[in-house]
Amino acid sequence: MKCRIQNSTLNVLPRFSLRLAPALVLATLIACWPLQTRADTIALSFTGGVILHAGGDETNGWAFTLSSPVLVTQLGLFDNNNDGLADSHLVTIWTITGTQEAQGTIPSGIGATLTNGFRYVSIVPVLLPAGSYTIGGFYSGGGSDEFAGFASAITTASGVTYNSTRDRSGFGFPPTESFGIANGLFGPNFQFPMPKSVPDVGTTGSLLGLALMGLAFVRRTVS
């Protein structure tokens, strides 16, 4: 967005209009002020573990709790060898009672963005209030894509708590904890934006200087 103030316009405006110029200068600067950029944060990362394959059509994933609302912007699926997915996979987030909140399809191949071992696609942002949820990815029995269990360490983003493994046969909400598999099934993942903690001091200082210069110019013109 290009924002310019035409000096020639100020020269021909009536005197009472010039009195409004300081407010116009400030309004223009606010309109041009860069919004604080945000970076998407991965909900969960893990290390170690055992690589697993689906024994049939399965929905595999994990349960989690949010301590505050998050805006889900990306859904993803584990790509063990970082060489692309053999099949496309439907990834879904449900509430603790099974209400579908967010869903997206991770395509086969390498088209989806690879980040920290997961391939992600953007979705229409979905706001999840604080509470408990389940995320699941569908795997067909004839597919070769892999997921992980028995992770040795799990790290979650601020405000996200990993609860337990979830799975079920076929596609759908996995209401029960997976029997015999701990620290899994990773599988699906998601991302959400978190604000940067450090403001852009250089940009802020430059805009403040422009505001002061603009106000000084208008004051000289009015007087």
Topology:
Blueprint: H1 7-12, H2 15-18, H3 21-32, E1 38-42, E2 44-47, E3 50-52, E4 58-66, E5 70-78, E6 89-95, E7 100-106, E8 113-115, E9 118-128, E10 131-139, E11 147-149, E12 153-156, E13 160-169, E14 188-195, H4 201-222
Antiparallel strand pairs: 1-14, 2-12, 3-11, 4-10, 4-13, 5-9, 5-14, 6-7, 6-10, 8-9
Q: If you had to describe this structure to a student in words, what would you say it looks like?
A:
The chain has 223 residues and is of the alpha+beta class. 20% of the residues lie in helices and 41% in strands. It has a five-stranded antiparallel beta sheet, with no helix packed on it. A five-stranded antiparallel beta sheet has the order 7-6-10-4-13, with no helix packed on it. Helix 3 runs antiparallel to helix 4. It is globular. The protein starts with 6 loop residues before the first helix and ends with a helix. The relative contact order is 0.27.
